[in-house]
Amino acid sequence: MSRTAFRAALCTPIDDPATAGRDAIVYHPDGLLLVEDGHIAACGAFRDLAPSLADPVSMQHYPGALIVPGFVDAHVHFPQVDIMASHGAGLLDWLDRYTFPCEARFADPAHARTTAAFFLDEMMRHGTTSALVFATVHAASVEALFEAALARNMRLIGGKVLMDRNAPDALLEDAQTGAAATDRLIRAWRGRGRLGYAVTPRFAPSCGDTLLAAAGRLLAAHDDVLLHTHLSETADEVALVDQLFPAADGYVDVYDRAGLLTRRSVLAHAIHLSSGDRARLAETGASLAHCPSSNLFLGSGLYDLAAADAAGLTTALGTDVGAGTSLSLLATLGDAYKVARLRGQGLDPLRGLYLATLGGARALGIDHRIGSLQPGKEADFVVLDPAATPLLARRRATCRGVEDVLFMLATLGDDRCVAETRLMGAKAWRRGRRNGSGG
Ligand code: GUN
Ligand code: ZN
């Protein structure tokens, strides 16, 4: 059996602070995380756990660092890393000008493989250990992503995009072809390593009723797969959906009628919603992926976290790269706070940590395996360096508690603060040593 102990400050959610209060977050200023065969065996105060450690155990000590669960990105497009920061005029224009040409290049499997490897290496560098990922319409793009994730032993869920209209011909296929390819991919990949599959219709404007219904049938036929799509991101998109689906009672109903709203459904954005929409979404158990960086970049709108909470909805956090401007969940949390403020709301740092970790795991249905530093879970975690730059080091010295540190990391931090990323206890990435800081 392999055993390694990690000593540092430890902070982990064990529940949602919005419902469970302050006790939902566990913090040990001098903590010890014991990992046995890739799983967490113990997490607690160093002084309590150290005496019971049987010799010999390898001990990694990170003075000044903060260990948190690996970040979970609940909505991201791996092929779009090359179009981040592309100047445009809102979602629909941005899709036509940048996204569709970028995704057409994934007809080349070699391009898919190099991009998938780059993307996952960047995830490791940003401390993101799990994600729900859009590929492109090409089966080879999903195969490239899964092969790269399998090689890194990542817990990752992805899917082939389904679309049959309103995009260049090279990216379209009829409903039957798309559904058959999806079914083949599910059977070939589910359960391999730590991989999962998500049926991935792009969004209602790209999918006719027949294709949406086929996606619904796939979701019903495979009870271990997710449904991943976009919902109500911009006002123009909502107007287009009303026009394209005159028989439906709005955007949520378009998905509802196709059987796409379930406990296994993750809907990105979900900004332009009525209270009736939220109530129906909550009834179905669907989760929402809040993507604040993307929403600010495209000018899509402001996610209403308080309304989602009040409706009893599960919210997770997504970078939505390439419309998102960073792969860092820390930077994304900083944007989530600003969006909350523009809504006249708050987002406290402990809730933020929950959203970026256990909240994402819950939305993806993998919280029994990852998302917190609790015994029995897979040991996916990040060693954060709160003093990664001279400015952070100076500001860190004035922080009074872990809440201050977490808020500072969300507001000023990003990949520079990720000293080490571990997957099932094994080192997946380590930053080069910096002067005067841990890691
Ligand atoms: N809606 C449909 N496709 C996309 C996409 O690729 N990015 C974003 N942000 N929204 C979408
Ligand atoms: Zn997206």
Automatic annotation (TrEMBL):
MF-aspect GO terms: guanine deaminase activity; zinc ion binding
InterPro entries, A to Z: Amidohydro-rel, Guanine_deaminase, Metal-dep_hydrolase_composite, Metal_Hydrolase, Metallo-dep_hydrolases
Pathway: Purine metabolism; guanine degradation; xanthine from guanine: step 1/1
EC number in record: 3.5.4.3
Keyword terms: Hydrolase, Metal-binding, Zinc
GO CC field: cytosol
Pfam short name (any one): Amidohydro_1
Source taxon at top rank: Bacteria
Stated role: Catalyzes the hydrolytic deamination of guanine, producing xanthine and ammonia.
Protein name: Guanine deaminase
UniProt source species: Rhodothalassium salexigens DSM 2132
